[in-house]
Amino acid sequence: MKFEHFALNVPDARAMSAWYVQHLGLTVLKSLPVAPHTHFLGDDTGRVFVEFYSNPAAPYPDYAAGHPLVLHLAFFAPEAGAVAQRLTAAGATPFSDDKMPDGSRLIFVRDPWGVPVQLCQRAQPFPGF
User: Is-above-0.90 flag for pTM?
Assistant: First the structure.
């Protein structure tokens, strides 16, 4: 078995997907032009990793009310501070900026819909980065 994707039910999957494409460099690999407007997004490896969809059959979670340590999307960001500034200028909200004992820097912002995004500037990047 291989991991395929992580899915989030959000009020406006089309707008959210466009923001992630424009500001986090993701690519729409597959989308549905009608409700629930499912968008599968991938990174520069070409693999799908996240799905945004808007399905009112289930309640939309209040992502902004939850702590980022409960749920977040994490991105490898060698210049995390600069990325955080750029995302904040694009509508994200800063949450925290932590320097870890090993020299890593982990920054949390919330996207314009309240979903926590972690920017990982690792002292020792994980394999494959």
Answer: yes
